[in-house]
Amino acid sequence: MTKHRANEDDATTILPRLSLPATVEELAAQERASAPKRSRRPVVIVAAVTTVLATATAGWALTRPADQVIPQPAALPTAGSRGYVDGFGAVGESVAPPVRELPRSPAAHPSAAGPSSAAPAPGQSLAPSALVAGTQRSLRAADRPDRFVRQSGGLASLVSVTLASPGGVRQAATFTVAAGLADRNCFSFVGVDGGYLRHRDWRIRHEQSDGSQLFRADATFCVRPGKVPGAVYLESYNYRGYYIHLRGEELWIDRWRDRDDRFDRECAFAVSTPWG
């Protein structure tokens, strides 16, 4: 008994004696006393985290550049904008707001009568560039306001043509401009009956084509510049230096005469709108 007690005293000296509850009621009382201490720990942790976040946010706001733009949240599509998808997957059309028009001054309203689109009168002078293959044109003596080239009886000559002239006269003074039979860079002139202006024996005639190379060359005339403004000068294709020239009312091809103002005027023709 003495030995056992001695050993027990030694164990008590080495390990402290534990105080255990004697009953269940005491154990429950101890649990209730320690519960408030445990419940305070989450509150303390949350408060500490909140303080840290607030301090970090304030520091970032102070260090952020003043000119930095904070992006705005993107607007979501609605039923009034393109790209809206309804419940069935169909894309709805945009619903545009009504547009309010401001009143305009009377001068802003278009005129009831539009610009005139009337065709130019027959025999009206045109620019030399209006001599184009595939068009109908008349040729007027540049220094004679009412005298036009016409074909009659197999010959070419001048005739007075006005709006009161008979239809046959007006048609005889109208030619279809064609690409040159011998050179497409030049021109040939076809009458209403299908005959061509050509030179033969120095005289300008109006004849049907015989298909020969000579006829094609005789019926081809090339436009050259001259002294009379707005006029064309027609040089023979196969007789270079020879031009269609007026001898009175008749048309011939004659050799160009330098320093002869009268001859210059008699070789000048104005391109005009067709009579026929």
Which architecture name of the domain at 128-272 does CATH use? Trefoil
Q: Mean pLDDT across all residues, rounded?
A: 76
Rg over CA atoms, rounded to whole Å, is 56 Å
Give the DSSP E fraction (strand runs of 2 or more residues).
15-25%
* CATH topology name of the domain at 128-272: Trefoil (Acidic Fibroblast Growth Factor, subunit A)
CATH class category label of the domain at 128-272 = Mainly Beta
Q: Specify the helix fraction band.
A: 25-40%
| N- to C-terminal distance | 160 Å
Care to count the β-strands? 12
Largest sheet, order of strands side by side?
5-4-1-12
Largest sheet, strands/sense/barrel: 4 strands, antiparallel
Global outline: rod-shaped
Number of helices: 5
H and E string: HHEEEHEEEEHEEEEHE
Structural class: alpha+beta
Model regions low in confidence, pLDDT < 50 over at least 5 residues: 1-15, 73-115
Region (Disordered): 96-126
GO molecular function, one term: alpha-L-arabinofuranosidase activity
Protein name: Alpha-L-arabinofuranosidase B arabinose-binding domain-containing protein
Biased composition (Low complexity): 105-126
